[in-house]
Amino acid sequence: MNSNGLNVVELRRRALLDQFQTAEVNLRAGLHQHGMDAVVRAHLDRALAHIREAYIAVNEQTKVRTVQELADQLSRIEQMQADLRTQQSPAEESSTSIHV
Known about the structure:
By secondary structure, the chain is mainly α. Helix content is 82%, strand content 0%. Helix 1 packs antiparallel against helix 2 and helix 2 crosses helix 3. The radius of gyration is 21 Å and the shape is elongated.
């Protein structure tokens, strides 16, 4: 590939990275809106994770997780967080209850 071809490829790569950054900013702004439905928030979180992974893949030009691997890992993290919340809830309730 000649130098003009390389320049075009690099310009496209940079433009794509800029688009990823714009998408990330917009998704983060959406996450900070009050009154957000939990399902919408979960989708925004997932979209943000996918945008970050795509940015890494393009920017570092390295092998990254597949979409399925990323989704599986995010699901495991969400499950662990749910388990922690479940474990913490009974402890918090008992610590605030009044014993006579």
